[in-house]
Design brief:
The chain is built from 13 helices and 19 strands. With 401 residues, the chain is of the alpha+beta class. Helix 2 (53-63) packs across helix 3 and helix 6 (125-134) crosses helix 7 (160-173). The relative contact order is 0.11.
Length: 401
């Protein structure tokens, strides 16, 4: 029986743990709690912090594992360290360090010869203010190592006191206590391209790319995912060639990645982020509903060097369902009282997944963790899908009193 080590047992890891059990693997789980939901599905649980390198390597050696994975971004560096220590399938430590750092990722883009905005890394407040003074407004402030758009802010004017507050917020969000200032790149549309790729050696599965529509009020936050992706063949070729250049430059050879990108006003492809883990918000399940490809199964099987499912997808007959997944955010503070769906869109709603109970107080959303609910929809055609989803906040909204 294959032994698979999974770092993290929170809700996001449960589908991966279940996929491994479905394949008949013995699941060893590292999670610092005794209460996270993934623990009950694992065969063996070690109560250790996934960021404690020595502890997780000891577990891996003791259990003599056949593979190691996570879909928790902070744990991905230790996944690489374990893979190196035990000669398992994985990516190099240097590759992970680059992809997990927004600063190093921008430098990687430059080295790969693809578009990257100007950027500065600040390790202290003085450097941060000096860099902000050099950057024309508007510019973007973000944590150097974080996820879910936490802290990311567009600054429209140079205000030292306001910038000092932003610096503190973003370094608190950053895993390495560093902050970045970046050139603002105009978005010509609120519809962007996002999704999950799967890489095995030099082969890439592109089926998980989709459109993401963003709110006019919070354009920094991904909001409504829609599959299938239909785009100009020239643009699709540019997407694929750009991502291959980045992956080759990083030396990424195995696993699932989540990407966000868009074409600028002058038609340059701007890859905002390329995160070396599965997308959140139920993206792997969303992809499965669209085309029938099981990203969880791909990840767990290939991790233990079983490539049969990956290879079978070369002849797999993809389905094509016109599906969308809408993240419901609140743009005001108040008390949450549920979700309102307009009668005109109600027949397309397949599932509402509330993330908080009615009666809970909420604040206006500031990052991707502030989602109140997910609404899954399915349409009869691509045209109908985008008629509604391109302006979905007219039809689906939270009830806030």
């Amino acid at each position: 029986m294959k032994k698979l080590l999974i770092l993290g047992g929170a809700e996001a890891q449960v589908p991966v743990i279940q996929a491994a059990k479905k394949e008949g693997y013995y699941v060893v789980l590292c999670d610092w709690t005794t209460t996270n939901p993934g623990i009950k599905y694992a065969d063996k649980h070690y109560q250790v912090n996934t960021l404690d390198t020595d502890a997780v390597i000891r577990v891996a050696v003791e259990e003599n594992i056949d593979g190691v994975i996570s879909n928790s971004e902070p744990a991905m560096l230790n996944v690489s360290r374990i893979a190196k220590e035990l000669h398992l399938r994985g990516n190099s430590i240097a590759c992970m360090e680059t992809l997990l750092s927004k600063d190093r990722f921008r430098s990687l883009q430059e080295a790969a010869g693809v578009y990257a905005p100007k950027h500065y890394l600040a390790e202290n407040e003085t450097d941060f203010l000096n860099a902000a003074e050099k950057m024309p407004c508007p510019f973007v402030v973000k944590p150097a190592a974080s996820s879910a758009s936490r802290g990311t802010t567009v600054v429209s004017s140079y205000d030292p006191e306001g910038l000092k507050a932003l610096y503190r917020i973003n370094t608190d969000y950053s895993w390495n206590d560093q902050c970045m200032i970046e050139e603002f790149v105009d978005m010509p549309s609120l519809t962007m391209i996002e999704g999950d790729l799967f890489v095995l050696n030099k082969e890439i599965l592109w089926d998980g790319l989709f459109f993401t529509t963003r709110s006019r009020i919070t354009p920094m936050l991904p909001m409504t995912y829609s599959l299938p992706l239909r785009t100009d063949p020239i643009q699709l070729s540019e997407i694929q060639s750009t991502l291959v250049k980045i992956l080759d430059a990083a030396g990424f050879t195995f696993g699932e990645l989540n990407v966000e990108m868009y074409f600028t006003q002058d038609n340059r492809l701007f890859v905002i982020e390329l995160n070396p883990r599965q997308g959140g918000a139920g993206i792997p399940a969303f992809i499965f509903r669209h085309c029938g490809i099981d990203m969880h199964k791909l990840l767990v099987t290939t991790a233990v060097n079983d490539d049969r499912y990956f290879n079978s997808l070369k002849q797999f007959n993809r389905e094509c369902h016109y599906i969308s997944r809408h993240s419901v955010f609140s743009h005001s503070a108040g008390v949450y009282k549920g979700i309102h769906c307009s009668p005109i869109i109600q027949k397309y709603v397949k599932k509402i997944e509330e993330r908080i109970p009615c009666g809970e107080e909420v604040q206006a959303c500031s990052n991707g963790t502030d989602v109140l609910a997910f609404v899954d929809l399915e349409f009869e055609s691509y045209e109908l899908q985008h008629r509604y989803c391109d302006d979905i906040e007219k039809y689906i909204m939270p009830i806030i009193v």
